[in-house]
Amino acid sequence: MERLIFSPEKAEAIVSLAFPREDQERMLELMDRNNEGLLTDSERAEMEGFRRVGTLLGILQARARLTLDKSHAPE
After folding, report:
1. How far apart are CA 66 and CA 51, in angstroms?
2. Which residue in 2, 23, 50, 67 is deepest, having the highest Cβ count within 10 Å?
3. Is residue 3 part of a domain?
4. Would residue 73 be called left, alpha or beta, if left means φ above 0 and alpha means ψ between -120 and 50 degrees?
């Protein structure tokens, strides 16, 4: 991941990425079903997919924020 270098413009675009509202609602539904012990195997796989994408997105956004911090730092 260290080799990922973002321009400030790309970094801002990455930081602004988010799951669409319908996906956020679906994730909440899956979490509720999971807490109730009612997930099917396909729902469990769907929830795991959301988790993986969310983790990757979080890593990319953290890297993008570091890029933005460095671009705003006084020289």
Report:
1. 23
2. 67
3. no
4. beta
Pair 11, 67: CB distance under 8 Å: yes
The separation between CA 28 and the C-alpha centre of its own chain, rounded to angstroms, equals 15
pLDDT band at 25 (very low <50, low <70, confident <90, very high): very high
**Domain span at residue 39?**
8-70
Say how many residues make up the chain: 75
Residue 10 has pLDDT above 70, yes or no: yes
Reported as a single tens digit per residue, the pLDDT across 38-72 is 999 999 999 999 999 999 999 999 999 998 998 87
Of 71, 73, 75, nearest to 7 (Cα)? 71
